[in-house]
Amino acid sequence: MEEPKVIFNEDQKAVLLKALKDIHFANGQLHEWVKKDSLTEEMSKTLPSLIENYFSEVAKVLNYESHLLAEKEKRYEDIRKANIRIRELEEKLGSGKPVEGLKEQLQHLADKVRDWWDKEGFHHVSEMKYHSSGVMSMDFCFMLDHYSSFSKTPETDKRNKKEHIQMLRDQGFEFADFEKGRSEKLNLIDNPINRTLLSKMLKTRFPSLEIHSWDNMSSYSDPDVFVIWHVNAYIYDLKDI
Predict the structure, then answer these.
(1) CA-to-CA distance for 189 and 137, rounded, in angstroms?
(2) What phi, psi does 230 have (nearest 5°)?
(3) Secondary element (H or E) of residue 229
(4) Nearest Cα to 114, choosing from 89, 144, 139?
(5) 233: which strand partners?
(6) What are phi and psi of 209, to 5 degrees?
(7) CA pair distance 24, 18, nearest whole angstrom
């Protein structure tokens, strides 16, 4: 089927042909000067402005401005519909997630964190919370003196405990050995070395973890020296667990 032709009256045709001729001349001049590397700074602004004005005359005669406006409105409408659809899908995803088994899943994640910390010998994790943003927070406590304290193989565990403590010392951890009055001297001194090592240990296991605060307390033997009590941290990506 043959495409319909655009019919111009005499005035429209005259205006259109003149504007097209002016565009052709200005474009040719610009092409020539660019080709010969003779385009001046002033003309680099003047010629594009002239071409833009000439094309504006052409667009008026061709009713192209109305076409552009209609296209723009259609794009805006398509974007608006897409945004509404996205919000609908997000709402469905947020409200449609199955809650069956969710309690067990959250408990499993908490147990994995606790088991890892217990394996590292520090024994206790407290104040575990899940937040609406999908973040998990907790306090990592330091209770090395409770290492394997409830085991059914106490003698074996004594040896394992000694080896584990020595391993931590070999890694550079500094213990409160000055507490002569205690049978076990397993508190970690609150100093930059221990903080750095603990931060590295935690972030190696949970890459998205961020430490929010350190809590310490004075040692039993020397009130001027502080030992680490617990670390408050947030795991921002539960997939790390």
Answers:
(1) 24
(2) -160, 165
(3) strand 226-235
(4) 139
(5) 138, 211
(6) -70, 140
(7) 10
- Counting DSSP H helices and E strands in the chain, the numbers are 6, 4
Strand residues in the chain grouped as ranges (E): 125-130, 136-141, 209-218, 226-235
Q: What are phi and psi of 215, to 5 degrees?
A: -115, 135
- Taking the whole predicted model, whether its pTM rises above 0.70 is answered as no
How far, in whole angstroms, is CA 63 from its chain's centroid?
47
Q: Specify the pLDDT at position 208.
A: 92
Query: Residue 116 in contact with residue 235, Cβ under 8 Å?
Result: no
Report how far residue 216's alpha carbon sits from residue 229's, in angstroms, rounded to the nearest whole number.
5
pLDDT at 93 over 70: no
What is the spatial distance between Cα 190 and Cα 225, in angstroms, rounded to a whole number? 8
How far is residue 232 CA from its own chain's centroid?
Answer: 21
Q: Dihedral through CA 36, CA 38, CA 43, CA 44, nearest 10? A: 70
Domain ranges in the chain?
10-95, 102-240
CB pairs under 8 A, 24+ apart, for 36-44? none
CB of 81 closer than 8 Å to CB of 87: no
pLDDT of res. 185? 66
Q: 228 near 175, Cβ under 8 Å? A: no
Report d(CA 120, CA 1) in Å as an integer.
80
- Find out whether 165 and 121 touch, Cβ atoms under 8 Å: yes
User: Is the pLDDT reported for residue 29 higher than 80?
Assistant: yes
- Per DSSP, what are the bridge partners of residue 137? 129, 234
